[in-house]
Design goal:
About 10% of the residues lie in helices and about 30% in strands. It is mainly beta. This is AGAP006444-PA-like protein.
Length: about 500
Amino acid sequence: MGRNGAAYGWANTTNIIARYCRGSVPRSCDHGILNVTSSRPCTLSESFVSSSDFVTLELKTSDSTVLRPLQFALRYEFVDLLQDGTAIGSEHECNRRFASSQMERKGPHQVRSVRNIFLFGRGGAKHLHCVYRFEAQRGERVRIEINRAMTGNRTCDSRVDPDTGRSYCFGDSTARVEIFERPWHESILFPRGCICNSTNSSYLPIVFTSTGREVEVHFSAANMTNVDDPDSLSFEASYEFVKGPMMCKDVRRKNAITGVVNLASGDIECRNRPWLIEPSYDRYLYIRLKGLFLRKFNSAAPLAYNGSFSAVTPIRCFTKSRVIITNGEGISVTACPLPEDTKHRHVVEVFSAGWGRKDPFFGPEASRVVSVEFLNPDPEGAHYAFSWLELTKRPSESYALVQEECPYLCPELNACVNASIWCDGIEQCPSGEDEAFTHCSALLRLPAEILAGLSVLLLVLCCGQKIKRNCRRTSVLQTRLKSLSSMDTAVFEDKEVIC
């Protein structure tokens, strides 16, 4: 039925893909002729694929007549296997790598999404996920510009947050382009933007410059159908490796039990680099920022298509500075920071991933690290700060026998804390329970035997004092009675003399 060439031109030797004679039925995809969008795609088992650049179809017949005609319909397509960058893993996959160390010119360079039809719905695939990794060298940063994006017939638009300058997806984001950043070596990836476009009303282009040396662009589509192909699902972008700040010497990875960070500290050109807070093994993090909650984003819970960036705050936000706190699940909270010396008591609280999940949990756990970004620093240098505290979950009643007890408890968080923060002179629990007089008094921290002895001694002293006071009162009363009786006698005698 077909001959498959082995080179770019005709070759003397060809490989026969298949041969069908009288009585045999070739592979066919009959429903493909209907041109119905709701029909399922033709799979590889219903078609033929060449292993080279050309294929030949030969038809030989000797007994075809008007009564016994030979008819067939053939649909063909040229499969585009060209991809930018170098492969990550198998060459047939769509994961690609772009390394600055392998390029003579730093850019800008163009990159487009994969166009292999067999990775899309019309080629029989159900889901698509491609990773494009950009790796800069020391002293460099990655600049990504998404110029074009198409996400099929899904109702979804991407809009830019005016407070942070980042793009977020509104609507059905089952097909999207996402930007992730690895701000520190061997840290997890943190989301930095989402792009989708089904109505050509999305804000484009989207420009992102990394604070670290590694950026990943994820191109994904779920539940694809026969209408999803490289023309309806695609993106085009440009990238370049630019020089980064040279004076950043701040240590912005913290792994202490507790701490406070002044967001305005450090070199000015380094203030846009995120802080990475890493808890100890089997611990969680509690982040506390004095500020106003603006909005929350969670890629697992898409934003409504008719949603907006508007936020209602109890007081007015007087600064353009913003703080973005992101946990290991990609859930981010945007806040307007308030100065530490403000009289307002508004705070923003964020827990690391997995804190709200009930134990025991047997699924894969997300990283418990937390990223804190400080965007648009005030030129006046207002004093903004956040604090963190390591926590462990309080044992439930059903598991109290197999888990360690919780002697140091923050009741408002329902969490156990490390003994080192207890009565250290600094309030870490929101209510200040760790510095309460009831358990931080030097007297109350004495051993139970000494406290019992002192209590008995105090009781004896109190009783003795009361007995002594009663005895003194009795003697005074007797003295007064004696004096009164002597005065009465004297008066009576005088009266008798007068008479």
